[in-house]
Structures are given as structure tokens and as C-alpha cells.
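Thread amino acids onto this structure.
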């Protein structure tokens, strides 16, 4: 009698059918399944109602894209079959350490003692702890655990197949998935992915498709403008961040907060007796968010905002070096310092406590462009910027244009805050010792 193979197939709206048979034990774990309750774009679903795709969906997409990429690299002799298997398993688990609401509560980790911090990003550091506990499950699938762990530590350059900032399989997946569920457009990553290789420990793109590589970077800028760096999204994240910080002040550990799903954290807010959390949560549920009253940014970008300037918003332009110096100060990224500044501004302008919200730049390092490595026909590896220097300069300028500080207030106090913009500016500059 013929023994039929056991297959486990799932359907994906973007990639079609995905065979997860070989990694089923890794999928059937609490740590991985919890990713189904963590939205890929955090609170962005409040702006884009369809953006309820999850970290689980994204990880499965990254898994499939990496599997396809590894097959091509094995055929080209760039990696072995064992390496391909390990990298593909890493792709499945690359986001397993993510906390609730995307990157929103990562600043909580700055509250930890130095001894408990990691050089890795918070989600990558948490992933290491999780996979250690899952070693038996991972090895059950035939994966070399130690080799996979080195990928998760980013100590083996093959991790770039998944995690390269420009050409990684997970970048292609989230960019496509995020666009599909928000602006209903699709970048051309499928064609480009067929011309990506691993050479000299680097992920490179064939010179023949440099235009497609440039187009993907342009598309990322478009997504940043319309989705990732939206003003309302930044305010939503800061509101959730502020409530999470209250939980820490009440005695909850940062690690315990990180273990929540999006729904679990919202439930914790809903049941809280903390007056600040109750007020912010009720306003969040009512769609009553703080509004931007003051923006402090580089003066060279103020003119770009003239057309959208309205009476409710005061845009203050300062020399770029002043803005960069101010925002580089640790206190402008510290949750404790931000709260102290919000209290100080409330007193300065005569607004009741907890009605002011300072919103620093969103994860600025994530939006600093990196050059794409291009593999030439002569065997050389050069940057995409050498082909398109103006394109790369424009990307850098776009990133700088979003390096700004917002000072917000609930609607009933917005005008009062805006009218005291000069006082607020001087107060913040004094705190920054400028």
C-alpha cells in the first residue's frame, strides 16, 4: 500500500498556497501562535481599517519568500541545503520576540538597568530568550539549533537573506503586505527577488535590475509618507506608550508588558483603575486623540508645510543643527523625561495636567536609508548611490524632514497651547541646554 505524504497547506491572500509541513512543530507553539494577536502595523488599523494583518501572517510570508530565495541560492551554489533549511527556519521565527503594538513600547526597555540591556533591538533580544526555550521543538524539525541561534544573534551574515534593510525577504514581505492592506498597491518585489544573490558575505542585487531596486526604495518612501510616518499614527503610538509607562510606574515589569498581545494590553488598560490610563483609554475608544499644536523642525522644511499650515498649528523652524542637537539629547527619548516635560509645559501654558503630549520622532534609526549593494558584470560590488546619487540624497532629505518634535494637546486645549508656542520653544531649548 502506498503511504501518502502528510501535507499541511495554508492559503495566503498575497502568496497563495504555503506548505508548512516541515515546520509544523515550530508553528504549533504558544510563542508563535501569539503572533496572530499582534497586528503588524500596531494601532494603524485605526487609520486603515483593513490593516489588521498580523505578525503571524508576516512571518509565514517571510518563510515562504525565504524558502523560494534559498532554493535559487542552492541551485547557484551560494549556500548548502543545510544552510538553506536553517535560514528558512530563522525567517519563520525572525519576529517571534515582538511585543504588542509593533515597535510602540520599545522605549520601555530604556528603563531597564544597563546589565539587562542588549546591543540588539528589543524584539531581537527577546527572541533569543524565546528560542532557547523552544530548542527541543526546533530540533524536532531537523534544524541545527546552534546554527539557527547564530542567525538570530546576527553573527552569521546569512541572516541578511531575511533581514537586509533593503533586500531582505522579510522586508519584501512586510512592504508588500502593508501596502496591500493600506493603500491597495503592490511593489514589484517578486521580479526583483529573482536577481538577489549572496556574494562575499553580502546580499547584493544584479546590476541589470538596479532600476527595480531604486523603485523599491521609492515605494518605501511612499509608504513612509502615507502609512509609517503618519502624524496620527505617531500620536496613537505615543498614547499607548504613555499608558504602558503608567503600568511600569505601578510596578509591572517591562518584560511582563512585552509578553502581552495587542488585545491583552488593551484589556489591561480597560480594567485599570489608574486615573491617567482610564482617561486616555476612554478617549482612545472615543477617537478623541490629542491634536498637534506645535511642530519644531528644521527651518529648511518649514516652507514645505506652508500650503498645509492652518490656524490650529504653529510650525517653528530652527537651524537643522539645533534641531538635531535637541533631539539627540537622551531626555527627548526618555519616557520619564517626556512626562516631566509634559507636566512642565502644562504648567507653563495653564493647561490641566495630563492634557499635553510630546511626540518625539518615530524610531528615527529605522528610516535612515542604507545603500543597496549592486553586483556589477565585472564582479565588483558598488552602491546604488553611485548610479543614482540624487536619489539617495533625496531619501536622506526625506528622513530629515520627519525628524521633528510635536507638542500636542486634547482638542479643548489645542489653541491655548498653540498661542504659547514661543514659551514652549524656549522652555524646550533651555532643557536641551541650547
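Threaded sequence (434 positions):
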Amino acid at each position: 500500500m502506498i503511504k501518502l505524504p502528510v501535507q499541511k497547506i495554508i492559503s495566503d491572500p498575497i502568496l497563495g498556497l504555503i506548505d508548512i509541513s516541515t515546520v509544523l512543530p515550530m508553528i504549533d507553539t504558544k510563542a508563535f501562535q501569539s503572533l496572530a494577536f499582534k497586528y503588524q502595523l500596531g494601532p494603524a488599523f485605526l487609520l486603515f481599517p483593513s490593516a489588521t494583518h498580523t505578525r503571524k501572517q508576516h512571518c509565514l510570508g517571510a518563510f515562504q519568500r525565504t524558502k523560494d530565495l534559498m532554493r535559487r541560492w542552492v541551485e547557484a551554489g551560494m549556500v548548502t541545503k543545510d544552510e538553506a533549511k536553517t535560514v528558512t527556519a530563522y525567517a519563520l521565527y525572525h519576529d517571534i520576540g515582538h511585543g504588542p503594538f509593533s515597535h510602540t513600547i520599545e522605549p520601555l526597555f530604556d528603563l531597564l538597568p544597563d546589565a539587562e540591556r542588549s546591543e540588539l533591538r528589543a524584539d531581537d533580544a527577546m527572541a533569543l530568550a524565546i528560542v532557547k526555550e523552544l530548542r527541543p521543538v526546533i530540533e524536532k524539525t531537523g534544524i541545527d539549533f546552534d546554527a539557527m541561534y547564530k542567525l538570530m544573534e546576527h553573527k552569521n551574515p546569512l541572516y541578511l537573506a531575511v533581514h537586509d534593510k533593503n533586500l531582505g525577504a522579510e522586508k519584501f514581505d512586510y512592504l508588500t503586505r502593508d501596502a496591500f492592506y493600506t493603500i491597495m498597491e503592490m511593489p514589484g518585489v517578486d521580479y526583483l527577488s529573482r536577481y538577489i544573490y549572496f556574494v562575499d558575505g553580502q546580499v547584493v542585487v544584479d546590476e541589470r535590475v538596479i532600476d527595480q531596486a531604486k523603485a523599491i526604495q521609492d515605494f518605501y518612501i511612499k509608504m513612509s509618507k502615507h502609512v509609517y510616518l503618519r502624524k496620527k499614527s505617531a500620536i496613537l503610538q505615543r498614547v499607548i506608550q504613555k499608558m504602558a509607562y503608567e503600568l511600569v510606574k505601578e510596578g509591572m515589569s517591562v518584560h511582563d508588558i512585552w509578553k502581552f498581545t495587542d488585545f491583552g494590553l488593551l484589556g489591561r488598560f480597560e480594567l485599570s483603575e489608574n486615573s491617567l490610563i482610564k482617561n486616555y483609554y476612554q478617549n482612545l475608544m472615543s477617537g478623541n486623540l490629542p491634536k498637534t499644536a506645535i511642530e519644531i523642525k528644521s527651518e529648511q522644511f518649514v516652507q514645505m508645510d506652508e500650503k498645509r499650515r492652518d490656524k490650529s498649528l504653529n510650525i517653528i523652524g530652527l537651524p537643522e543643527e539645533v534641531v538635531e542637537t535637541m533631539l539627540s539629547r537622551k531626555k527627548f527619548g526618555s519616557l520619564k523625561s517626556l512626562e516631566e516635560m509634559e507636566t512642565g509645559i502644562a504648567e507653563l501654558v495653564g493647561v490641566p495636567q495630563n492634557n499635553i503630549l510630546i511626540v518625539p520622532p518615530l524610531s528615527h534609526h529605522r528610516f535612515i536609508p542604507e545603500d543597496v549593494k549592486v553586483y556589477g558584470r565585472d564582479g565588483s560590488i558598488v552602491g546604488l548611490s553611485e548610479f543614482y546619487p540624487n536619489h539617495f540624497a533625496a531619501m536622506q532629505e526625506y528622513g530629515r524632514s520627519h525628524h521633528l518634535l510635536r507638542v500636542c494637546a486634547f482638542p479643548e486645549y489645542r489653541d491655548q497651547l498653540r498661542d504659547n508656542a514661543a514659551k514652549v520653544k524656549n522652555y524646550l531649548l533651555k532643557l536641551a541646554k541650547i
